[in-house]
Amino acid sequence: xxxxxxxxxxxxxxxxxxxxxxxxxxxxxxxxxxxxxDESNCFILNTCHIRDKAKEKVYHEIGRVKERFIQKDKPLxxxxxxxxxxxxxxxLKREPYIDFVIGPQxxxxxxxxxxxxxxxKVREEITDFESITKFEYLSKIKNKINKVxxxxxxxxxxxxxxxxCVVPYTRGPEFSRPLYQIxxxxxESVKKGSKEIILLGQNVNAYCSNENGKQYKxxxxxxxxxxxxxxxxxxxxxxxxxxxxxxxxxxxxxxxKLMPFIHLPxxxxxxxxxxxxxxxxxxxxxxxxxxxxxxxxxxxxFSSDFLIGYPGENEEDFxxxxxxxxxxxxxxxxxxxxxxxxxxVASNYNLVDEQVSKERLKIxxxxxxxxxxxxxxxxxxxxxxxxxxxxxxxxxxxxxRNEYMTSVILKGNKSLIGKVxxxxxxxxxxxxxxxxxxxxxxxxx
Length: 445
Ligand code: SAM
Ligand code: SF4
Ligand code: F3S
Hints:
Blueprint: E1 3-9, H1 13-27, E2 31-33, E3 42-47, H2 54-68, E4 76-80, H3 81-87, H4 89-94, E5 100-102, H5 110-120, E6 124-126, H6 131-139, E7 149-153, E8 155-156, H7 167-170, E9 175-176, H8 179-191, E10 196-200, E11 208-211, E12 214-217, H9 218-225, E13 233-237, H10 246-254, E14 261-263, H11 271-276, H12 283-296, E15 301-308, H13 315-328, E16 331-337, H14 354-378, E17 383-391, E18 397-401, E19 407-411, E20 420-428, E21 432-437, H15 439-442
Parallel strand pairs: 1-2, 1-3, 3-4, 4-5, 5-6, 7-10, 10-13, 14-15, 15-16, 19-21
Antiparallel strand pairs: 8-9, 11-12, 17-18, 17-20, 18-19, 20-21
Helix pairs in contact: 9-10, 10-12, 13-14
The chain binds S-adenosylmethionine, iron/sulfur cluster and FE3-S4 cluster.
Residues 158, 160-162, 165, 167-168, 202-203, 240 line the site of iron/sulfur cluster.
């Protein structure tokens, strides 16, 4: 009987990509995926360490599995991802139910570790930083995901060391995959039906690959992907303001497939706080980039990440952030209260009062939601291009996204999946647009 694996994923898009690749890897040694924890022989928890009680969340999840299997044979328990990397042997000591932990740069060792555990029952931690070997190994295993919109990791790790962030410790130093490897994965994906590729990296716009005496940047990669005929949309996430170079900005003039929506985290609207965060950019630098992009295409919109209640943030700093949100009209943004992470510089700083931070977050989110609501309203009674991604669970509606990643819900037939169609927007709310396809335009699409 085939062995069944259940994978649970927390965290960012890169973890989602990793979980898909983990599935491709374990299929090689006979596992098939199950969506039911109860019937699994192997439970893989792909973890995130970015905020809150990440560690406790992992032990809680393992506790739940333990309860479910109290009357049955224990499944193989593997903790992967960023908590595994950060906590490594600590986890094995604290929770004997965990069989082994494996960090994000060691997934190429997953199958051997499973086989070794099955044979020798030795509990171990595998947390070396070996990105090159990992991606070489992965490039030989086909990416089996066949979604209309697909992720491809092109860059991992970070050398920037913002004082609040664990990523440089959990994902290791910056590493860019070779261009040819990415293009070949993208071509495969498009052959299987992908119409949109979302390039991923913790600092995706720092992408830089040196091959055969030539240096390739994100702009080169975008312009190469542009040539894949059936590919309709290109996006990338997450960028750092310092790496928004002129050649990348130029892509917004040269590429027809690059979407006019940029996720560019600024974190705070106060230069004092940006300095305390070790962000290595000022608000003014950000605005210069913003204006350069708007000059190329007025329709480009921005989203961002905001870290609220960072140690040292006073009322004036907070007001500066609020002012910036209103001025630049950010869409679809993420905002979080600062959460001290073990091992980072800011973990030793004095915290802002929790109630004050919560109050500030509420105000920031209201301003961001307002921007989003107004933008969504502006689409009403207009025809906009939507990439139809899938059928909704109710089987009556289709789901798609506009150029700005906003969800669009529309009536229509499954045969429209994978097409970019003009959709007339009838109504909207803060999160979604509701519309219908102009039947006359379907033929032409
Ligand atoms: N590389 C991206 C950048 O520099 O903007 C960010 C990547 S990070 C994985 C995603 C977001 O998590 C950050 O932009 C930040 O807002 C948030 N984050 C990171 N550390 C955090 C912390 N200690 N507490 C709360 N949010 C945090
Ligand atoms: Fe974290 Fe981004 Fe800063 Fe790197 S640049 S340390 S990933 S917030
Ligand atoms: Fe979390 Fe690791 Fe991504 S800490 S946000 S899963 S890089």
